[in-house]
Amino acid sequence: MRMRGWIAGGVAVAIGALAAGGAAQPSRARVVVSPAPAEPVVVELFTAQGCAGCPEANRAIEAVADAPGVIALTYAVDYWDYLGWTDTFARPEFAARQRDYRAALKLRALPTPQVILDGARQAQARPEPLQAAITAEGARRAPPPQIEFRETGDAVGVGSGRPPAGGAEVWAVVFTPGPQEVEVARGDNRGQTVRHVNVVRRLTRLGDWTGRPALFRLPGERAEGEAVAVLVQAKADRRILTAAVE
After folding, report:
1. CA distances to 93, 97, 108 from 204, in Å
2. Which of 95, 65, 81 is nearest to 195 (CA)?
């Protein structure tokens, strides 16, 4: 995507600093969100291969993953591994992200599965209520800062806007688009093939966004076929202001 003037002029110094510092579509039923939100709604699922109730939630996320105006991301958590199956996609930082949401949303429990919309609210992990929640969330969006990826693929620009109280930060979420299937040999889902969509591989904090245009270097060494979602997220209440996928 071509860099716009607001990025090229607003972050020329940042570009110089970066330069000095370093060098398949699945066939499945789809739920269509209509009308599509003007800005994407980020749907984050926290799930586990060893959780008996999670495959149904995985299917609900897959049903909306290709809907217009949706960025769906699946984070595998590791705290179900005690049942005998080590989750092949889990990383400790994914469970840490879920705990951050628990604190921000003032939740008593840490449920699995759990669906979070735009970092701001929980949603039911069933197709019809999830579709309704996405549509409602899309109508609430305030005008966000723009996001533009550099054509070289190594950096992303975030434009100007009003930052939230407490400031905001920019995250890069590297994920594998489409479905991934895992045969589970032990635990509650023993003998089942568990299917995930848009599995998150890495989560990287790129830096702070203060309301002024800024350029951030994207994490390198992405595997073939991996994509990256960039999220601009409030530090205090964890609300996602805007997001885009390269």
Report:
1. 10, 11, 27
2. 65
Q: Which two tokens stand for residue 98?
A: 């879920």
List pLDDT tens digits, range 147-192.
999 988 899 999 999 999 999 999 999 999 999 999 999 989 999 9
Residue 225 is given by DSSP the state: T
End-to-end CA distance of the chain, in Å?
9
The amino acid sitting at 124 is Q
Instruction: Dump the DSSP string for 57-125.
Output: HHHHHHHHTTSTTEEEEEEE-STTGGGS---SS--HHHHHHHHHHHHHHT-SS--SSEEEETTTEEE-S
What are residue 181's phi and psi, to 5 degrees? -120, 140
**Distance between CA atoms of 219 and 45, rounded to whole angstroms?**
22
Cis check: omega of the bond before 35, within 30 degrees of 0: yes
In this structure, are residues 241 and 145 in contact, taking their beta carbons and an 8 Å threshold?
Answer: yes
116 C-beta neighbours (distance < 10 Å), count: 24
Which residue shows structure tokens 């069933």? Answer: 126
Could you report the per-residue pLDDT of 56-99, keeping only the tens digit for each? 999 999 999 999 999 999 999 999 999 999 999 999 999 999 99
